[in-house]
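<tokenise_the_fold>
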Amino acid sequence: MASVWFEGLDDLNGLAVDLGRAGPVTAVKVQRAVDAGSARIQGLGQGFAPVDTGNLRSSITRTVGVLAAEVGPTANYGLYVEVGTSRMAPSAYMGPAFDQVAPDFYAAVAQAADPLGGG
């Protein structure tokens, strides 16, 4: 059984629990939504990332697993750029990318999990 958890997002967490009981057709549809959503987050994150040398932007990658994806920078300073430090203001890029994609992603997953029309 697959498990999905979205830290701090109660609606998606409830949906993730429901998906644990989903059938294979629903799982395929959700996997497509995960793949498409994570690709959009990666692209937007790269577009929103501040550019000095281009290293941060090019380090934003994604790894897609079974009903899961991880998207973010591999540059060791990526988190500091996102949240800031005591000497530097934040310049968020991944958070805004996620925020922009989340509503469409949630709708796609909810539609896939709908027993009457989605899966």
